[in-house]
Every structure is written in structure tokens, then in C-alpha cells.
Amino acid sequence: MTDQVMSVSQATDEPPHSKTSIMSIVNRIAGAFGRDIGSGDIAMLRRMDLDDLGASAFWRIISTYVPADTLPNHDPLLAETERKWAIVLNALAILAGLHQHNVSLGAALAHAGFSELRFVRLLRARDATLGSHVRSAASYLASKGQSADCADLALLVFSDAEPVRRKLARDYYYNGD
């Protein structure tokens, strides 16, 4: 998925507001972990309740790294986009130091031994259940020390598109040990 460019607004079915891609935003944030984003903020993001966006670290990172012109300008789409960013930031915090551009999320999960049942549940998850499945997958990868392209994870969260899920499935099944 690293060659596909999709803005946050495109992934949420809003008209495009910017050329900024989800992948470039995720790469910037992942690169800032431990450098510009301290361990206290990373820990806060790991513990963050995905339905209660009261974590100050969340708002600091969103306001610093996610260009305002990539966000929908009205509720309920804005609230849903912020919740999706919470899922992504939570996973990035769990995977801090394990983001690697050239390791597909599907292949990483396969190499780490993530069960097929859990993988299928992740691919099928939508809306309210997506956050817990993404958190589970990120925690599993972190427990195994397995690097993954977190941009793939963000595309899964922001896009309800079948091609994203199919790419992850191909990578999981074709690249598993």
C-alpha cells in the first residue's frame, strides 16, 4: 500500500482538501516518537480510551502533525475522523520504535504468528469494534518485537475500501512462514 496516496479526507469520503497523505502523516508522527514526542506522551497514548479523547497528548499531536485542511470541517464526520486518529495514534504508541516502511502489516502479522482467526476478525472489524481489533494486533506485534508499516494500519482504519483489506490479506497469506 506504500505506493497509494490517499488524503485523510479521501479516506473518510470527504472531498479532498489537501495533497497530504495519511501515509506521510503517519510516517512523520512515527518518526517523531522518542525524538519530539516524549515517553510520557507515548505512554498516555498507549493507555488512551478510544472513546474518550481527553488525553492531552492526543490533541497536541493532532494539532501539530495532522494539517487542519485534511480534517472534515463539520460533525459528525469530524468526530469520527478524530476517533480514527485516536485508534491510529494508540497503535503507533504501542508500536513505538517498530514502524518500518517496507514491512507490510499483513506480512508482519503472518511472520509474528498472528492467528488466522484474529486476522480475519481484524479485516472484518468496522466502526465500534475496529479500535479493539487494531489495538490487539498492535499489541501482538509489539510483544513479538515485529516491525510493521504503520501506514498500512492507518489505511485500514481510515478506509472502508475493500482493496485495502484485500492487500492486507494477500500480504498475510502470501508472506506467512
Structural description of this entry:
The protein is 62% helix and 0% strand. It is mostly helical and 177 residues long. α3 (39-47) packs across α5. Mean pLDDT is 87; it is low at 1-20.
Q: Main beta sheet, described?
A: none
Structural class: mainly alpha
Extract low-pLDDT stretches. 1-20
Indicate the proportion of strand residues: under 5%
Q: Count every beta strand, where a strand is a DSSP E run of 2 or more residues.
A: 0
End-to-end distance = 21 Å
N-to-C order of helices and strands: HHHHHHHHHH
* Rg measurement, Å: 15 Å
Specify the overall morphology: globular
Structure annotation, total helices: 10
> Which whole number gives the mean pLDDT?
87
Helix content: 55-70%
Short summary:
The protein contains ten helices and no strands. It has 177 residues and is mainly alpha-helical.
Labels describing this entry:
177 residues, mainly alpha, 10 helices, 62% helix, globular
